[in-house]
Amino acid sequence: MPSCSFCSRQAVGSYALTDLNGEPDDPASWRRAVAPVCKSCHTALAEASDGGRVLKATGERWWLGHGQGKFAEPGNSMTGQWERA
Question: What is the span of the domain harbouring residue 38?
Answer without folding.
Answer: 13-79
